[in-house]
Amino acid sequence: MKRITTCIMLLSALSFGSYAQKKPLDHTVYDNWQSIGSKVISANGQWVAYTIIPQEGDATLMIYNSKTQQQLAVPRGSNPVITEDSRYLLFAIKPFYAVTRQAKIRKKKAADMPKDSLGIITLGRDSIWKTTAVRSFKTPEKGSGVIAWLQEKPQYDSTSGTLVIAYLEKQQVDTIRNVQEYTFSKPGNKLLIEIKEGVLLWDVATHKADTLSRGPGIRKQFAFDETGKQAAWCSSRDSAKALVQLFQLYYYSSGQDSGLIAAAQHNSHIPAEWTISPDGKVWFSRNGERLFFGTAPAPIPKDTSIVDFEVAKVDIWNYKDDFLQPMQLKNADKELKRSYTAVYYPAVGKVIQLADKDMENLIPADEGNSMYALGHTDKGERVAMQWTGNTLKTAYVVNMNDGSRKVVKEHLDSSSTISPDGKYILWYDVQQRHWFTYETATGISRNISAQVPVPMYEEDDDHPDAPGPYGVAGWQFQDANVYIYDRYDIWQLDPAAKRAPLMLTKGLGRQQKLRFRNIRLDKDERYFIGGQQLLLETFNEVTKENGWYQLPGKKIILAPEKLVMGPFSFSDPVKAKSTPVSIYTKGSYERSPDLYINSYLKKDVQISHINPQQQQYNWGTVSLFKWTAYNGKPAEGILYKPEDFDSTKKYPVILYFYEKLTDGMYNYIPPTPTPSRLNISFFVSRGYLVLAPDITYENGYPGKSAYNYIVSGARALAANSWVDSLHMGIQGQSWGGYQVAYLITQTNLFKAAWAGAPVANMTSAYGGIRWETGMNRQFQYERSQSRIGATLWDKPELYIENSPLFHLPAVNTPLAIMSNDADGAVPWYQGIELFTGLRRLGKQVWLLNYNNEAHNLILRQNRKDIQRREQQFFDYYLKDAPIPEWMLSGVPATEKGKNWGWKE
Fold first, then answer.
1. Distances (CA, A) of 638 to 219, 230, 519, 656
2. Pairing mode of beta strands 248-253, 634-642
3. What are the residues facing 626 on neighbouring strands?
4. Is the N or the C terminus of the chain less surrounded, counting Cβ atoms within 10 Å?
5. Other CB atoms closer than 10 Å to residue 672's CB: what's the count?
6. Any bridge partners for residue 201, and if so which?
7. Residue 320's Cα: distance from chain center in Å?
């Protein structure tokens, strides 16, 4: 009897062990893997609404009550909005994913596609009120009790709909037909409504509409002042089919019968041949005394006498052009819509043109209330962008009372800002490596960081260019001080340079290698006030842990207090408006980021529990791996191991790299189809080790620098008994792809290599175009990522030394390349040069060109495809798996779209 019992127990143990063994991730898991989408919290902190989004399929809206900790799920809910009074939740309800998919398969017209619905919940109740075919819905920014939505009209009319104005407390609605656009005033007391035949002003309290403008026309840029007592918009009486539409600026104030023309084309204060721009933002200053709008040269009508097929189509490149033709063409629509800021003073009916073609950009201070604004231009400095990557600027201080301007700083190699009250203009001087201010009242410029004893520039920058600053945390009330970051700490600097610099964080950051950065919890916060507590996003450069510290709001400056630090990643908290309650996501490599709620950021409560299925799969662990690089400097990287790691076994290795990745050590990496990067979680789950080494570069030698850190890291890892040093691979995308291509010309250490969008030939890539922006690539080599630090003619030997193409005879490592014909960053021909060179030399090489695809794959079907091929490629070389057809014999063009060559 005892023997039988023992056998039964043994069988049970074996059965349980088999059952408990976790599965490796496969390609079927992607679609249902979830993430937290939009998230909102009510002003009183009681209610939280958030969406759970699968990679493919229908999302779920969750509504959480922090008092009862109960939740309500709404299938397909999205875009949640909680009203200002914390009483109602509005959200869109998307059509079923499957229904929309079928409609796309059937190629239905836009008017026939499934439409969104609107859902409304009275918070605290479970019932949902719904209405179908809703184009949009809106709530007042700072008011409550009223909402509005635009109901779709029948399919034959897609330009307008029925506006429903709902009074939630009274359970009443008003409707207005033929509405094209609508906007609430901030307090919610008024609505501006565009109908086909005019503009209406709806009074929420009286349920009545006044007609502000009658007749057909084109109307844009509706705006209210802060109180809802003034309104403005742009309007043209010209037909939509007219060759040119000329707009006027309309202004309305309480007591007027209708909107009046405030500015038009022939206004004496608007430049000749200019007109009101329908693309320029219309907005009121906070005090309502100024109305800002845009002007622009009057559009040139199209010459209808030109016969399209009888004229040449040519782009003319001229060496005197400000920008290269590809960049001009890329930005043509933006330039056609460019506007120049002007201001209208309603009290006196005066118009002043503030910006023009000599100073295109204007930034008013104090939300338009200040007498001063910052203007800037790069006119006369644009050609050099071809090789510098940016342009020098001239900054101006502009008097908004008369439009006069004074030069603040010429040849400025950074951006400038104006203080909240407009007393100072602030900039960082890249060459002097210090912060400067210009006092608008006196015209005096000052170095305000000269007495700071630590560098204000990026200490570890390794590009062949002057290092930039760490940034600005913000300003104190009445422009009394400005808060500036160094690498670790926060400094209080006197913009008048009279008081000595004060380190707000008491040096704790530099002492403990903690990087402090302010988190703005109030989106409307314009400045800091004395005694204000600051929440600091904190990163530990040594342990790579993240968390929050708090800077106490006291007159005596004390060191920041730790709230939480740990092996996690956090999103920025979203704070309730009226209470110290916040929501945020927290996760790690091992834990999917879930939503938490927290009072005073001291004790969190987990709200969501997404991706429970992860427990079924063999996941992974993460640790910091350290070694000494070949240049003698300390090196570090992230080492990922399978969850079921066994030190008595040997594991194949893939090294994945870009520049520096260890700051993201505790980021979650979901199993998702890759844009061409390595999906680390997927490969680790399937029994690979992955090492992601940090790389520090020496100018002029980017290839050698990559070798020093990557190869030394691989060999250091291979010294461990659990590493299969004969089965190591490398993978990189873009800059990482270049480094892959270079490494295989320098070492035979790796058994397989995968390069996404690599540069192979720096001599030809140097003069190429980044088609996504139209920019020339010279700046990358002279000043930026490619780190040559010289022109092709000054240092041709460095371009050749760092180009894989010139060293291809040394390659023995099989290489897979992704190089797409619509790549907007790396020219497609770089991949072709690499492929054809290796093919000519009889090397093992494959190239994947995803048709009409970008630098990083966009289409999900292409991402799924490359993920499968990456697995097959590395499994064949590093795990001795069967070779797939696409690698063994290829896929002929005649079989394209019928045979994908996946068969093994």
1. 55, 57, 27, 10
2. unpaired
3. 636
4. N
5. 19
6. 192, 210
7. 34
Alpha carbons 742 and 602: distance in angstroms, whole number: 49
- Residue 422 and residue 399: Cα distance in Å, rounded? 11
Query: Which residues in the chain land under pLDDT 50?
Result: 1-19
890: left (phi over 0), alpha (psi -120 to 50) or beta: left
pLDDT at 45: 96
Q: Specify the pLDDT at position 155.
A: 59
- What token pair was written down for 460? 């570890």
Q: Alpha carbon of 1 to those of 4, 9, 11, 14, 254: distances in Å?
A: 5, 13, 16, 20, 98
Q: What is the pLDDT of residues 266-314, one digit of tens each?
A: 888 899 999 999 999 999 999 999 999 999 999 988 888 888 899 999 9
Amino acid of residue 493: L
| Angstrom distances, CA of residue 428 to CA of 293, 362, 385, 484, 485 | 30, 19, 19, 11, 12
Q: What is d(CA 667, CA 651) in angstroms, rounded to the nearest whole number?
A: 23
Query: For residue 605, which of 204, 232, 48, 189 has the smallest C-alpha distance?
Result: 48
Beta strands in 237-322 (DSSP E): 248-253, 260-263, 274-276, 283-284, 291-297
pLDDT at 556: 67
Quickly list H helices, 54-140: 97-105
For residue 737, give Cα distances in angstroms to 734, 783, 811, 868, 895: 5, 20, 15, 19, 29
- Nearest Cα neighbor of 760 from 779, 795, 786 is 786
Whether residue 176 contacts residue 199, with contact meaning beta carbons closer than 8 Å, is answered with no
466: tokens are 């002057």
Inter-residue contact 464 to 787 (CB < 8 Å)? yes
Please tell me the pTM assigned to this model.
Answer: 0.94
Q: Can you give the pLDDT at residue 3?
A: 35
Which tokens sit at 801?
């030394």
Rounded Cα distance between 515 and 537, Å, is 8
| Pair 326, 373: CB distance under 8 Å | no
Q: Which of 686, 716, 692, 545 is nearest to 620 (CA)?
A: 686
- Does residue 607 contact residue 66 with C-beta atoms inside 8 Å? no
Sign of CA dihedral 323, 328, 331, 336: positive
- Spatial separation of the C-alpha atoms in residues 392 and 408, rounded to whole Å: 14
Listed in sequence order, the residues at least 6 apart from 890 whose beta carbon sits closer than 8 Å to its beta carbon are: 901
SS3 48: strand
Backbone angles phi, psi at 146, to 5 degrees: -140, 140
Query: pLDDT tens digit string along 509-530?
Result: 999 999 999 999 998 899 999 8
User: One-letter amino acid identity for 489?
Assistant: D
Extended beta strands in 509-659, E state: 514-519, 534-540, 546-551, 561-566, 569-570, 574-575, 581-587, 594-599, 603-606, 620-628, 634-642, 651-656
